[in-house]
Amino acid sequence: MSLVVFVLLPGVHLLDVAGPAQVFSTAADFGQPYRIEYVAERERVPSAQGLPLIARTGWPELSGDDLIVVPGWRTRTLGGGPALGHAGSEWLRGHHATGGTVASVCAGAEALGRAGLLDGRRCTTHHDHQDELAARHPRALVVRDVLFTADDRVVTSAGIASGIDLALHLLAVRHGPALAAQVARDMVVYARRNGHEPQSSAMLRHRSHLDDAVHRVQDLIDGRFTEPLPLARLAAGAGVSERTLTRLFHRATGGLTPLRYQQTLRVERAEHLIGHGATVESAARQVGFEDARMLRRLRTRTPREKAGEPSRRPTPADG
């Protein structure tokens, strides 16, 4: 069981807490071993939106698999806002030193900075506070115009709703992009990535639509992409005809067929295996190809095609 501990400071923004908490709570609903706790220096914590929160006091003992999240709070300046006390800062440092991950949302980066966890590391915060964060912590490498950063188990995100992106990123790192996509779909949010970075997986890249039939088919393909998946079987799972599924899938994913989507997942997995020392032949077999010829052919596609963006309009015959 992994513990996710939210550290609440006075004036905390509700969405900074609720967004990431919902991500991990939904992951737990899908069978992942997460338990959520809320801690603060005082039992009753006023929120920026007027709803008081109740938290346990005292700093729990954690393992390396546990996660600390410091949500942001309402403040005009980081220096003039609430501050985590010495014991809390020591607790943050100690958790990171023993292999744990520490994360922040919005102004929560200030608490990490005061604990010395931003020194020499990439980080970010709400755009209103980026200049002050850089001035207050000159050894920190403040990155602008990104949703979140991750550097040596210190993960920071920008303002308010970006805490959801941060939490989905952590799920993808810990459990793979299929779970992150499943949680994002259940929450009816798009699993966004930082604009200057490539999408980490087609499982996330092609989930920004709201077509439930296509999502059901993607769930099936995501979990079994190494197996033969005839179009008729996928269509039956979605409760539509093969022709209708091809049309819906093409529209929802920006031009893919189910077969092309499955091939994209296979190639991405094969590239990962090859990058970790597998031969092309071995990688091809592990991802479901009968031999390496098809994998070699798919790997020679244009960058646009390899990203899962077909250069022509597919037909139902494409599968």
Quick recap:
The protein has 319 residues and is an alpha/beta fold. It is built from 14 helices and 11 strands. The chain is 43% helix and 13% strand.
Give a topology summary.
Layout: E1 2-7, H1 14-29, E2 34-40, E3 44-45, E4 53-54, E5 56-57, E6 67-70, H2 86-97, E7 101-105, H3 109-114, E8 122-123, H4 130-136, E9 141-142, E10 148-151, E11 154-157, H5 162-175, H6 177-186, H7 202-205, H8 212-224, H9 231-238, H10 242-252, H11 258-275, H12 280-286, H13 292-299, H14 303-306
Parallel strand pairs: 1-2, 1-6, 2-5, 6-7, 7-11, 8-9
Antiparallel strand pairs: 3-4, 10-11
Helix pairs in contact: 1-5, 5-6, 8-9, 8-11, 11-12, 12-13
Descriptive notes:
It is a single chain. By secondary structure, this protein is an alpha/beta fold. The protein has two domains: 2-186, Class I glutamine amidotransferase (GATase) domain (Rossmann fold, 3-Layer(aba) Sandwich), CATH 3.40.50.880; 209-318, Arc Repressor Mutant, subunit A (Orthogonal Bundle). Helix content is 43%, strand content 13%. The protein contains 14 helices and eleven strands. A seven-stranded mixed β-sheet has the order 5-2-1-6-7-11-10. Strands 3-4 form a two-stranded antiparallel ribbon. Strands 8-9 form a two-stranded parallel sheet. Helix 1 (14-29) packs parallel to helix 5 (162-175), helix 11 crosses helix 12 (280-286) and helix 12 (280-286) packs across helix 13.
Q: Largest sheet, if any?
A: 7 strands, mixed
Amount of beta strand: 5-15%
Number of helices: 14
List SSEs in N-to-C order.
EHEEEEEHEHEHEEEHHHHHHHHHH
Compute the CA-based radius of gyration. 22 Å
Keywords: Transcription, Transcription regulation
InterPro entries: Class_I_gatase-like, DJ-1/PfpI, Homeodomain-like_sf, HTH_AraC, INH-QAR
GO molecular function: DNA-binding transcription factor activity; sequence-specific DNA binding
Pfam families: DJ-1_PfpI, HTH_18
